[in-house]
Amino acid sequence: MSFRFEVIARDPRSAARVGRLYTPHGAIDTPVFMPVGTAGTVKAMTPELLEELDAQLLLANTYHLFLRPGHETVRALGGLHRFMSWPRALLTDSGGFQVFSMNSIRQVSEDGVRFASHLDGSPQFLSPEKAVEVQVALGADIIMALDECLEYPAGREKARQSMELTLRWAQRCRKAFSTNADAWQGQRFSPAVSRAKKHGASAPEATPSQALFGIVQGGTYADLRHECAERLVAMDFPGYAIGGLAVGEPPALSYEMTEASVAALPADKPRYLMGVGYPLDLIGYVRRGVDMMDCVLPTRNARNGYLFTWSGVLHIRNAGHATDPRPIDARCACSVCRRYSRAYLRHLFNAGEMSAATLATHHNLYFYLDLMRRLRAALREGTLAQLAVELTAAQQSEPAR
Amino acid sequence: MSFRFEVIARDPRSAARVGRLYTPHGAIDTPVFMPVGTAGTVKAMTPELLEELDAQLLLANTYHLFLRPGHETVRALGGLHRFMSWPRALLTDSGGFQVFSMNSIRQVSEDGVRFASHLDGSPQFLSPEKAVEVQVALGADIIMALDECLEYPAGREKARQSMELTLRWAQRCRKAFSTNADAWQGQRFSPAVSRAKKHGASAPEATPSQALFGIVQGGTYADLRHECAERLVAMDFPGYAIGGLAVGEPPALSYEMTEASVAALPADKPRYLMGVGYPLDLIGYVRRGVDMMDCVLPTRNARNGYLFTWSGVLHIRNAGHATDPRPIDARCACSVCRRYSRAYLRHLFNAGEMSAATLATHHNLYFYLDLMRRLRAALREGTLAQLAVELTAAQQSEPAR
Questions:
Q1: What's the CA gap between B152 and B247, in Å, rounded?
Q2: pTM score, two decimals?
């Protein structure tokens, strides 16, 4: 068996749990936040820096890699791990979210979705079978079924129809994948020259094959979410994602939909909430039983000079930082905060230097991964509520500038 | 004494020599190539990566730092070493070259040079005294006298007048500096959190004060170059630069001017040829007695996808690299060549990812610093001519693509 999940500890006061996800490319402590490596690289970072940050699992976007450099190119070069020289675990999404969010011209049919490439306008087609084929070629440890991503708001009937399509697509993905799960058997990427070896070990029994997750849809209708989850569970996936949230709906509704979905998901399988969120959101979803999350927020905001700290967001471009010798966050132990001043970082942003993005991204990702470490520790010690209160207070007290 | 130079070995067949330059922020093996950190950062790199590359001496541009963030800001933040968190040696140029090359509207007078900032058009003035004031505020270990940079070609009379101005400015710089040489006495930057400690040590007697170099001008007239050098030597600087070359003149003329300048410079002082060059140029100048060089070539070309290798320049954007699993250069031991394929690097360039620039710059700087290491070894072993032949052959045999 190549993929396994175990729950290690539970929070008595919420649905939160600490777990461990075993994959062919290492074990992952959950709840986990996945940095987003859109095109086979986390923007402004290098795999070396991500190892230094001790990221255990990255997400890469099937849509982007499918269009460029193409999944067959990646397959020919030994799969995505080898292509990007990343010896740890990878997850690819199905491509669906980008097809629906990046392309105004698209045609959804029973068969799949037609769209025009955002790179050159060329006509493209993604079906459940194609999404699986592409993701098998990429070879990530965890791959996703193709789902239809509904816009918000959407009426109940539309949400039901979309959910039904997603369920039929999930079944087709499962079928297409059944003969391909072991495409990478025996080909774990583990470069001689990788500093990964000293870090987290893979389970002894883990051998390279991929795990396909189903995705719960159902719009903003709790009963549809619940039903969708139940019917996916009947198909028996090794893990389940909750999709179609964080698309503009009020936060209370996102939480409600998450609860409705989780209620129908098995306790012994990992749950992945796609595309969230802000620091406080992470705690909120973990308390609702979520084990995995991903978001471009820490990386994208870093490139715009928005830095996460334990006393709120800091806008490093502000003139007030021009002569400030303090680190971004005195309470942060990251190598950027240990070495560089706000004044220097502001200067790098002002001068348009790439290193500004690199150092800011490094800090923000450290903040997110550190938050997840603290969150797991608090969960084990039963102090999760306290951490939430502490972070809430911190996020509400805006820092000096 | 804060600054000292010793010649360790000489090439019996040329003017080349191996030496050691002691500065308040560490000793430097010469001949040395200085990566260019224009605005207080080497573009696409971080100080951590430069330490990993074992760069011992960086150049920063006074012109850029004067305009942004301003030398008083840097002084208030503890000087340039602390500002950019670089515990090793720094050299600043005088700002003159950028004033002359980046500003079409400028007015040179006996007093100094008026120009408009390239950032906002604001009127600015740089005099010998101001150049020293700014460089003292920045606090680099080695600083440069203000010189007039002549365009090529220039007539003999114009070259003589310009040389005379440069000599008068050199004297004024010397005078302005005489009371400021110890402005940073006792303030060596050495952060607790620096991995630099394990690297090259500073001389025990080195205490933080700066060294001011004079600059040889004289256009493309060997007798003027010789005379300028002699008259600078009479002023007794701790080191001498050769300026105004690599501005469009034929290579043979650059070599001739270097020889004419070096002939009049003392054997026991370091010689710095400003703004060169390609790999073969470096050997050529070292054989003519040059100890220090700087150039934007390895960094700027990296960002454009031009990679230096031991078998010529490789254009990584070329389609031919799309599926090439080989490293940039199989003979290169840098961490980029040990980890990444040409296919991946090309993909990063194609996708417009910043990490493309970071990895390419890392490789190119490694190539240059590695070349200098080999060059110093060859010099000690008396095989410099062989290295030149090897590199010439390599540079002439263009690689596959």
A1: 6
A2: 0.95
